[in-house]
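Quick one: structure tokens for this chain, please?
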Amino acid sequence: MPPAALFRGVIAHVSVTLDDGVDASRPFAGKLTKHGARVVKKFITNGLTHLIFRGSPAAASSFSARARDAKASIKVVSPSWVTACERCLLYTSDAADE
């Protein structure tokens, strides 16, 4: 699979916060875009396929509630899922990472 096609069809919102509160979303958004995904800045439920998330339990709960209220089937995955897919140049199962 060509690298630019790895995440084709993925529409993602990236919210990655390190333990010290630093926002680390940009590198993961860059990886997704480089490999064909569309990254949106705001968490919208219409059309969103993936939420790349690492952060506080309160933030996770908020994202989950908004997706549930919108009856959206958004896959919630960790930043390590993005890295694993990129490393293998293979879209690995996102179901195991939810």
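Residues 57-69 form the longest helix (13 residues).
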